[in-house]
Design goal:
Layout: H1 14-46, H2 49-70, H3 73-79, H4 85-117, H5 122-129, H6 132-148, H7 152-175, H8 180-201, H9 216-247, H10 249-283, H11 288-315, H12 317-325, H13 332-358, H14 362-383, H15 387-397, H16 399-414, H17 418-444, H18 451-473, H19 476-490
Length: about 500
Amino acid sequence: MQPADASASPADGLRARIARGFAWEGLSKLCVQVVSWMSTIWVARLLTPDDYGLVATSGLFTGAMSILMDFGLGAGVITRQTVSDRELNQCFWLNIAMGVGMYALLFVSAPFIAAAYDLPALTDILRVAGLGLPISGIRSVPYSVQLRALNYRYRAIIEMTGQFIQASLVVLLAFKGLGAWSLVLGYLCSQLFMTIAFAVKGPKIGRPTFSTRGIEPILKFGVRITGARGLGFAVGSADMAMITALLGARSAGVYSVAFNLASAPLDKIGAIFNRVAYPAVARMNSDAEKSRRFLIQLHLGLLAVASPVLVGVALVAPEVVTVLLTDKWAAAVPVLRVICLANILRLSGMLLPVILEARGRADLVLRFQFVSAVALPVGFAVGSRWGLTGVTLVWLLVYPLIYFWLMQLSTHELGMRRRDLLTSAMPVLMCNGVMAGVVLGVREFTDDFSAVARLATSAAAGVIAYTTSMALLVPRSFWHEVRSTAAAMRK
C-alpha cells in the first residue's frame, strides 16, 4: 500500500525533486507534443470542421461535469498536511458515486442538449464520451496520491503512454472513416488505460463508504476549488458555446482547431510548470519568501520557453495553416494570430491561480474566476456580432484587464510588488521583440518563396534571433538557475 503521507526524504531535498519533476514532465510533454501535433495535423486533413465542432460541443458538457464530479477532493488530498487511509477511502468512493451520478444525468439530458443545438448526432456522442466521467472518478484519488508524493516519474510515464494511445487510435480510426467518433473513442481508450495504471499504483481501498464524516476540511477546501475551477471552465468554454450557438458548428470547428494550435504552448509547456508547481508550493506554503522566489523563477522560465513559440506562430500563421492543415482551414488564420498574441499574457495568467491554490487561497481564485465568468462571456456575446474575428478579439481587449487584477491579488498574497513580476519578465519580452523584427524583415524578402520554404526560412531566422538575444539580454542569474536545475536533474 502506498503511504498516505509520502513526502521527500531528508536526503532527497525538495529542490532536487522539483528539478527531476521538470525533467520528467518536460520529457513526457516533448514526446507527447511531437506525437500530438503530428496526429492533429493528419486528422485535420481527414476530418471536417463540422466533425471537430461536434466533438468540441460535447466537450463543453463532459468537461463541466468532470469538474463538478471531482468536487475538489483530489486537490484536497494533495494540499492536506496529513491524510489517513480512511480519508482516502472515503474520497475514493465519493468520487466514484459522483462520476456515476454525473454520467446518468448526462445520459438522460443528451437528447435535449442535441435538440437545443440542432445537432442530432450529438446525442450518441455525449452518451459515449460521457463514459469518461466514471472512469476518471476511479482515477482521481490514486492519481492525487502519486502527485502528493511528488512521484513525477510514474505520472509522466503513464500520461505519456496514454497520450500515445490516444493519438495512435485517433489517426487509425479517422483513416478508417469514423469521423468524429475517432476523436471520442481515442479519448476513452486513453482514459481507461491511465485509470488502470494509477489504480494499480494507488492506495489500498476498503469497503464502500459514502460518509463525509471526518473529511469536512477536505470538502470545505474542495468546494472552493470546485467553484473556482468550474467558473474557470465556464470562462474557457464560453467562446465555444457562443460560437456554436450563434455562428454554427462549422465556425466552431474552425475556431476549435485554431484555438488548439495556439494553445499548445499553454497546454503542453505551461502544464509542465503548473503540474510541478502545485505540489511543490503546497509543501512550502508556510514560507512566503521561498514561494516568492519560486514564482519569479517559474514565471521567467515559462515565458522564456513558451512565449517565442506563440510569437513565432502568430508571425507565420498563413504558412502554418497552409502547410500543415491545407487551404480548407484558411479561415483559421486570423483566429490563430489573435489567440497566439493573447496567450502570451495567458501564460502568466495560468500560473498565478495555481500558486494561490497551492497556498490554500482558493477563495482568491474563486473571486478571480467569478469576475472572469461575467466579463468574458458578455464580451464574446457582443463580439459574435462581428463573426469569429469579433469573438477572438475579446481575448485581446477584455482579458488583459482581468489579468492585471489577478496579478494584484497574487502579488499581495505573497507580499511582493507587481513591478517585481513585470520587471523579471522584461528581458524575455525584449528578446521576443528582437525575434519579431528579424522574422518580419526576412519575410519581406521571401514573398516569392513557396509556403514551405517561407515557413522554414522564417522559423530558422526566428530561432537564431531569439537564442542570440537571450544570450545577450537575459541576466546571468537566470542562466545560473538553469545550470543549477540541470545539475539537480542529473542527481
